[in-house]
Amino acid sequence: MRILVLFAVSIFARLAAPIGAQAGDVAELEILGFSEGGSVFAFEEYGVQDGSGFPYANRYYINTADDSFLKSTPVKVRLDDENATLEAARLQARQKGEAIIKQGELAANRGITAGFNPVTELSADPFRMVVNPRPIFFPVDDPLEFRLDEIGLNNTEGCESQGEINGFRLLRIEAKAGGKTELLHEDKAIPKSRGCPNGYRIGAVQTFSLQGLSAYAVLIAVRQYGFEGPDYRWIAVTGRL
After folding, report:
1. Is residue 16 part of a domain?
2. Shortest CA distance to 58 belongs to which of 50, 67, 66, 49?
3. Cα separation of 171 and 130, whole Å?
4. What is the pLDDT of residue 57?
5. Spatial CB neighbours of 40, under 8 Å, sequence gap ≥ 6
């Protein structure tokens, strides 16, 4: 009888464990690529919302010259139906994006993922990434180094109940002797589109080159409180070289 009871308890614990787990909603990142010439960078984030179970897909198209969104973007799709598929949401986002830049052009100019740290990576520095911009050995390019600092902005309206609220500052540091430090972005306030962010981490660096290195995008994961755990969404800071 004791063995049967222990067996039953073990089975119950295994069945109950997933119910108590808190997964949150970590958006998948899909780097779409650059336009021909590198003037535009595009990426997609997609997933299923925790709590509602609604699938979503968002596409971002960014002018690399001034780090601004193209007209009529971002493209955001959410299917408010628990039975809708993630594939359907992604297809709608892709169809809308075709009117901005053709998928084929982005795929033909995807660039190089010079660095990548998913949110599950525990051993990497979330606030610093140094990469060889192109897979050429011995390297012909100077390393690209990016550093991220979080900036406390707890006075953000509408976020009073969301714990510590942070913006961010992103720097590019030249590795060569006497190299300069360039401020790429610094939040003075949190844009409403970003919600109530608690933290950030550098997730990837994508580079683009023609005759030489000419553009880059730094992908940054944004952490927020979610319904079932922390949620992560993606933003990008772009530039020309």
Report:
1. no
2. 49
3. 12
4. 98
5. 34, 61, 62, 63, 64, 70, 101
Instruction: State which residues of the chain have pLDDT below 50.
Output: 2-20
pTM of the full predicted structure? 0.89
Q: Is residue 7 part of a domain?
A: no
- What was the pLDDT predicted at 22? 56
Question: Closest Cα to residue 97, out of 67, 69, 123?
Answer: 69
Nearest to 65 by CA among 87, 85, 41: 41
Q: Would residue 152 count as lying in a domain? A: yes
Number of domains in the chain: 1
For 88, the domain range is: 22-240
Residue 1 lies in a domain: no
Q: What is the pLDDT of residues 157-199, one digit of tens each?
A: 999 999 999 999 999 998 776 779 999 999 999 999 999 999 9
For residues 180 and 173, what is the distance between their CA atoms, to the nearest angstrom? 6
